[in-house]
Request: fold
Amino acid sequence: MTREYKAPRGNELHCKNWRIEAIYRMLHNNLENAERPDDLVIYGGTGKAARNWDCFDAIKSSLENLEHDETLLIQSGKPVGVFKTFENSPRVLICNSNLVGNWSNWEHFNKLEAQGLMMYGQMTAGSWCYIGTQGIIQGTYETFAELAQKHFDGTLNGKFCLSGGMGGMSGAQPLSIKMAGGIGLVIEVDPKRIQRRLDAGFCDYITQDFDESMEMVKNAIAENEPMSIGLVGNCADILPDMAARGIIPDVVTDQTSAHDELNGYVPAGYYGSNLSECDDFRASDPQKYIGQSMDSMKKHCMAMVDMQKQGSVAFDYGNNLRGQAQKAGFEDAFAYPGFVLAYVRPLFCEGRGPFRWIAQSGNPEDILATDKAILEMFPDNQLLKNWIELAEEYLPWEGLPARVCWLGYGERHKFAKKMNQMVRNGEIGPIAITRDHLDSGSVASPYRETEGMQDGTDAVADWPLLNALLNCASGADMVALHNGGGVGIGLSQHSGMMVVLDGSELTDQRIERVFKSDPGTGVMRHADAGYELAIKTAKEKGVKLPMLQ
Ligand code: NAD
Reply:
């Protein structure tokens, strides 16, 4: 059967109302934006939208037949039940990749997955909220802009930024670095991945030749010209060599699929034309492959620490390279910080995080109208203004037209209500609002979002569970609870949500509750951990925290 990977557009409904239709379109939109749609893999190596095609078809028909007061339950990508609930209840509840603590590891997960009993949901893959590369471009831009503030007087102009990986999420790096003013060199084993980013306008040049790439970097520094280069190669070969030769970038990070030592990371020596041999190696001797993969990650991470010692600003970009290197025997793997600890935590204290909205009509004009509305609503937010202008200039539409920006507590519900009013007035079509699972109150992940919490509660998973429960109680249309995300099974717990703006008065009420509750749990979590900025935010904005009154 030939599959259609395009999300429906226009006014014709496949489901019984817009609240269900938008979830249906978002599921299809995930596939439209997928890295490997034939395998249902959306991004992040193995992050899937449904367990298999039978499950996908059953989800589709369940949504088509779902009533306005029923809720569909999804267990690791498989539709398992439909129950009568309330009109204001979520229409879809999703749990992906969750295992009881003692069994929460790749070995056990892989066994179950091989038997067809589980699925890896990543973050927005299994919760149908992926919008292509814009989400991660915005987050990456935000991180590099914050890094520039902290280390380089507010700009990356003339700075050489080195990273690895140009896949689903990592493919955002070249453009984000360029948008922040820098010169990005991103190493990727697979030339096809680089070419795809080149075709999309996310990367300027591709080369197989290291010396040529360094020449281009040198010229760009001399000319102070923002640009991006994709170098075909393997990080585990190139970074140690650079560190040994004293070729030291201003900034070094990495976004290869290091969280998965078997199906993600490619061991040293493999890149370009011998990648098919690597696939054969993986299939024929997985244990030996894992050994080489772990050893390569150790060398890769050691080179980053070496570069840090020689003057680079080094940070981990949420792929657990440090954790893998430590497991492989490199004691000093955590010498450089994770990006949240280094740049994002203060934003989380104000309930800020990646808020995104998607035009269900498929018409880009709807998003351009909301761009205008958000700039009018928050005229003093310079970062927001810069981002929206850059996004309109650089970003192509991918799948259903979408926009993302970071909004905080007090801002999200105001803007959501404004958009619902625009839907009601017929200025735009229905909108789905969602966010990354990487948000202020929705994640526990000791190697990433909750690394180095000041009260030591990095691994406490009660917070994302409370966030998901509260989003259900507040009337979100979809709520998801996942294990694993970008760092791997057993290493994080996180939740996602979606609210559909159909223009109704009832939706105004849901907006008021969900978009205060959701970022409010972030303010609460950080205030509880003792962060002064979060306590101040709670006091100023009237978030009720019983132990801090
Ligand atoms: P992906 O699998 O689509 O892309 C990773 C790329 O790395 C692939 O193209 C692969 O060919 C390449 N690669 C693998 N080993 C390599 C090596 N040794 N040298 C050079 N290239 C190599 O995955 P993705 O969606 O791009 O995600 C990348 C990683 O980032 C994952 O671990 C993911 O969990 C993590 N992630 C972090 C964040 C964040 O919040 N910062 C967000 C999303 C994903």
User: Anything to note?
Assistant: The CA atoms of residues 105 and 521 lie 28 Å apart.
